Amino acid sequence: MPVDQKRVRVSPGWERWLDCGRRLVWAGVASVVGVAAAVTGESVARAELRVGAAEVEITPPMGFPMAGYYHERLATGAKDPLKAKALVFRDGETRAAVVACDLTGIATDLTAEVRERIARATGIPGEAVTVCGTHSHTAPDYGRDLYEHVSELRGGTPPAQPRYTATLIEAIAKAVIDADRAAVPAVLSRAEAIQETPVSFNRRFVMRDGTVKTWQSHANPEVVRAAGPIDPAVGVVVARPAAGGAPLATFTNFALHLDTVGGLEWSADYPYFIEESVRGALGNGVVSVFGLGCCGDINHSNPRSTVRNKTDFIGKALGATVVGALPKVQPVKNPRLRSFSETVLLPLQAPSVAEVEAARGLLTAVQGGQNAEFFAQVTAYKQVMIDQLREKQPTEAPGRWLKWGLTHRLAGVGDALPVEVRVIALADDLALVFLPGEVFVELGLAIRQGSPFDQTLVVELSNAVETIYIPNRGAYAQGGYEVTNSALQPGGGEMLVEAALRLLAKAAQQR
User: Fold this and answer.
1) Cβ-based neighbours of 368, under 8 Å, separated by 6 or more
2) Among 24, 35, 133, 436, which has the highest number of CB atoms less than 10 A from its own CB?
């Protein structure tokens, strides 16, 4: 079929922006795409593709630190279990694995440790394993524990007591190992639904003075409009045994920040309720995998309401959309596994020596109990983290100030952060894209708009979180929290879009 020129439902102004971006990106990769070969006939899903699914609980103990904020919170219990949910795809000698974890982000060191164990146990190449975070803010802050665990592994020093991260690594790996062992000939079906019940909102706003601010309300007379779009599409993929029987798994993709619970109890946030809805429709044996869409500038707070949507409302509304799409799923065309990745060097910001010294001073004062303006604290934390990434020998050990963001494998990489973009094509009409960091919705929409596949599911927070936020280029001139909390120079997001489209074009050539 010719390259699909479909459009995503967004506002007219953003439609024009995306159309311009699509033309620019495709101009850059036209030499790769060439003329797409026509598909003769529409074959139904065949059984050559094998799929396995499994899940393992990763809930930490009470008293372990919780992630998501800049102050310490210790868990007092659990609302619902945290899990690692894995899908393994096998097509002859080609294999690929995806494991979605109820974690705020995936540290590069965590990805590396998990990959090593999976490769030893299954033979799946480490680079073919993608580890994703759902971004729950009621999940563990494992950064310091992981950093110290890797230090012990490298130095051969046994821990003083068992570490949660040692258990976490083994559990994530086990989910993939179990899924690989359970793989059976399978058929895939897909659908895309529109989330009609409003649960997602762009959280950046254009103000009357021309600036852009995050987390505003239309009750504020200085607010003019939202600064960007949302992505209302809910992508659904269903895997069923070719021999018949209960479904193996569903994969749901939606762009909405997971920070809806609050409190001090572990929770998977709204995907837990999606899982409940899916299992109510398909049976308790189905593994409900959630891949977070690009939502760096999207949250659940309706700026026109004084009441925030609650977790169960959001999850049940999305669950109803997924269940409503199940009777409409269609078999994918010519299922065949293709998996490609590209390492992209994202230019890091470059705080001065004086800025880093001032940042350390501010964080030291905060640790001593002093209050600091929020944006100043965010900036200081980021600058110390970037100093760790850029400098082979920071003047002081970063662990004095950092928890999340501590890294062995990325420490001292220099002026550019190496990250992976991965594309897994499952059929002639279905592809998955995996990106690092918290990516703006505009960038995810640009990938879907430019993709040669009928349906492309874009998942953020994959394999690396050290980028922090990844805004589109224009947002850097506007400002706001997300720009303040990005480790990258402007243009990094567009580099990811271009890499994703190159890989999608490569996969499409092999149809």
Assistant:
1) none
2) 436
